[in-house]
Design a protein that fits this description.
Helix content is 59%, strand content 9%.
């Protein structure tokens, strides 16, 4: 028997005031996702994950059996551009290297619509079933789209003719049905024709996929052959076009050379040129004339200078030496001497002196002599100047005439030289073009394509689609991912309480016990309410003892414990009865009171329905001894709800109720109150205010957390002391595999401690 705790002698009102409420225990926030939690979730939902892992591969396997197999064959082609002399007009003298752009161009050539149409015609693909359905479906789709657009345009006409014109479809092109079918089949073929460049190489891979393995290989090989043939045709065409251009160029250059030679001959004839000889003679003549002209001009200048000096004699400022006349100089000296003689005599003798007059006569004779000589010299110098002037004029006229002739000759010679240079350039270009023409003629015979087939396609033995193993593996991976996602969604959407950790994290109160469910196979012939007494060593009985120990081990062990739940069906009555019986079996004085007066269950379980109870006592219709009952299996005392039909809170709020609880506190070690659900009934909150502790029963994996939180909030508002919660109706096997921290409670290793 448990040692009884020291009795609390304080008045009930004082004890209730000192009791902590839910506000004193802060809620524990849920822990973040970790590996342990993930493993636990997978353990709990392993059947979901296993179902996805099996279902998806099974579906994939069935699907692969019903899919039409497709075969893929491939051809490899080496792209090796060769050098040839004649290329297209734009690249005659230009070399092209193998770049990514060139390789990409080769891919597009192979995948061109023209190549595809030739393949379609070669194999008659428009008549094959795998292409015929494509053509038919596309025709139907295009027809439906055209019909829809037409209807919309007709409807839009009432709103806006302009809008209707925008919406109206273009009338289909007038294409022959056979050609249209061929184009559509070619487009379908291109969707299955894959051409890729092998990385860091010049190798092209050509693959084709078809339902017919022979067709897949044949199309791949034909695509490669057509590509190589088109290369060779393109080169021959380029050479042919180059030859045509070169022939035209040769004729043009020859005509140009002939025309230039004719113009040269005509110019030489017109200008009298003989390879530049006349031009040289004319140049020499001009040089001589220029020298003679310069000499004549010097002579003229000297004659004019002397003539001017002679004409200046009379003024007395002429330089006689420049005249070149010795007589004039001598006469001038004689005159000067006569003038000095006259001046000397006149100064000493008088003007009438004979010597003076004789000297004056001599001076006059000298002046006459100088004047005569001067006139003679001036006349001679004037004639000399006129002669020199006439020569200068003649030379200037001759020089001008020669210069004009030379200019005409040089102009003709310049034109001739220019024509000769043009003619020589045309001859050089003509020779080069002739050489290139000969090269192209030779190249035509040795031209080869830029590609060669490395390995032709062979008929595939196995389909490329579908791959059962690949499908199954991919489906398994997808199933695993889907299963993980579904497990996560189920875990996130599950708002119930599944473990003690859930209770602590979601409610902020401790989980005092995990009460296992009692299946029909475990109960046998026993009733649920009697199981704790009939099987005292069972896990269920141990859960009740655990619950009682949790209440007793508290800092302030309660005497009056109210057992309630958020809603009906949570197992509160069974828990209250079993807890009371378990404590009584441990030697405690225990009283069980049925406070659920609206739906009493204790009397029904203990087979005393209709007997007077607590309602009769509180109404004064029965005494305490009249309502007190004794359990037939244990030493438990209990009080039924009573026979009086009343639904008023006044009974539990009365002094009679407080007096009753005060009395039983003195007489019993533990008083268990079975209260109605706290969420919808106010009775539980009123009684909880009078109790020392409140225990909340929560059905395992059933009651939503929000419902339990609301119930706790109502009890909190009623100043109830919430000591914890008990998870009821726990499936031991399921919980044991859940991966929660408290899953070990029902592990088989503890089986030696229990007796079912």
């Amino acid at each position: 028997m448990l040692d009884r705790p020291v009795a609390d002698t304080r008045p009930p009102a004082e004890r209730r005031t000192a009791m902590p409420t839910l506000n004193t225990a802060p809620a524990i926030e849920p822990e973040g996702l970790n590996l342990a939690a993930l493993i636990g979730a997978l353990r709990r939902r392993r059947m979901v994950l296993l179902a996805c892992l099996l279902l998806f591969p099974a579906i994939a396997l069935i699907a692969t059996k019903n899919l039409t197999p497709r075969y893929t064959a491939g051809t490899t082609v080496m792209f090796e551009p060769t050098e040839y002399a004649a290329r297209e007009l734009q690249s005659i003298l230009r070399d092209e290297s193998t770049t990514d752009a060139v390789l990409a161009s080769q891919v597009e050539i192979i995948r061109s619509l023209s190549v595809a149409r030739r393949i379609v015609r070669r194999f008659g693909l428009t008549e094959r079933e795998e292409f015929a359905w494509w053509i038919a479906d596309r025709a139907r789709a295009e027809g439906a789209l055209y019909h829809l657009q037409t209807r919309i345009a007709e409807a839009a006409t009432a709103i806006s003719p302009v809008l209707a014109g925008w919406i109206a479809p273009e009338p289909p092109a007038e294409v022959p049905p056979a050609e249209l079918a061929e184009i559509q089949a070619a487009e379908a073929l291109l969707q299955r024709l894959d051409v890729q460049v092998v990385r860091n190489s010049r190798v092209l891979q050509i693959r084709f996929t078809s339902q017919d393995p022979q067709l897949s290989a044949a199309v791949a090989n034909l695509a490669a052959e057509l590509y190589i043939a088109d290369q060779l045709d393109a080169k021959f065409d380029a050479v042919r076009r180059a030859n045509d251009w070169l022939d035209g160029r040769i004729a043009q250059l020859r005509q140009e050379v002939n025309r230039n030679e004719a113009q040269i001959a005509e110019l030489r004839m017109q200008s009298g040129l003989t390879r530049g000889v006349n031009a040289g003679l004319q140049t020499e003549q001009i040089s001589r004339l220029t020298a003679d002209l310069a000499e004549a001009r010097n002579t003229l200048a000297g004659a004019e200078a002397r003539l001017g000096a002679a004409r200046g004699i009379g003024a007395g400022n002429a330089d006689l030496t420049a005249l070149g006349s010795a007589n004039l100089v001598a006469q001038r000296v004689a005159r000067d001497e006569a003038r000095r003689e006259l001046d000397r005599l006149s100064a000493t003798l008088g003007p009438g002196h004979p010597d003076v007059r004789a000297a004056a006569g001599r001076l006059a004779a000298a002046d006459r002599a100088v004047g005569g000589e001067t006139a003679r010299v001036t006349q001679a110098l004037d004639a000399e100047a006129r002669t020199a002037r006439a020569r200068v004029g003649s030379l200037e006229a001759s020089l001008r005439d020669q210069e004009e002739r030379l200019n005409r000759t040089q102009g003709a010679e310049i034109r001739v030289n220019a024509l000769e240079r043009e003619t020589e350039a045309a001859r050089s270009l003509l020779r080069a073009v002739l050489e290139r023409s000969q090269t192209t003629v030779t190249q035509t015979a040795i031209e080869k394509p830029d590609g060669r087939i490395l390995s032709p396609a062979t008929v595939p033995g196995q389909p490329s689609f579908p791959k059962p193993l690949l499908f199954v593996v991919a489906a398994a991976a997808l199933g695993g991912l889907s299963g993980l996602m579904l497990v996560w969604l189920l875990e996130q959407s599950d708002s119930t309480l599944r473990s003690g950790d859930d209770v602590r994290s979601a409610l902020g109160v401790p989980c005092l016990a995990l009460v296992p469910t009692l299946r029909r196979g475990i109960l046998g012939r026993h009733r649920v309410e009697d199981y704790v007494a009939r099987k005292p060593l069972s896990p269920f009985a141990e859960a009740m003892r655990t619950l009682r120990a949790a209440l007793w081990l508290g800092s302030d062990p309660p005497k009056v414990v109210l057992v309630t739940a958020a809603r009906p069906g949570e197992g509160k009555t069974t828990t209250a009865l079993s807890l009371a019986r378990s404590a009584a079996m441990n030697g405690e004085r225990v009283l069980l009171i049925d406070c659920d007066i609206r739906q009493p269950a204790i009397g029904r379980l203990l087979r005393t329905e209709g007997a007077p109870g607590i309602t009769d006592l509180l109404l004064g219709q029965a005494g305490y001894e009249q309502i007190l009952r004794r359990d037939h299996l244990t030493a438990l005392d209990w009080i039924p709800a009573g026979a009086a039909e009343i639904h008023s809170l006044g009974l539990f709020m009365s002094e009679a109720m407080a007096g009753l609880l005060e009395r039983v506190r003195r007489e019993y070690d533990l008083v268990v109150l079975d209260a109605p659900p706290a969420l919808a009934m106010a009775d539980a909150r009123v009684v909880a205010r009078l109790a020392d502790a409140t225990l909340l029963c929560v059905k395992w994996r059933d009651t939503p957390r929000s419902v339990v939180r609301n119930s706790l909030a109502l009890l909190e508002d009623a100043k109830a002391r919430i000591v914890g919660a008990a998870l009821t109706q726990v499936d031991a096997k399921t919980h044991r595999r859940s991966g929660y921290a408290d899953s070990e409670v029902y592990h088989p290793r503890y089986s030696g401690y229990f007796r079912e």
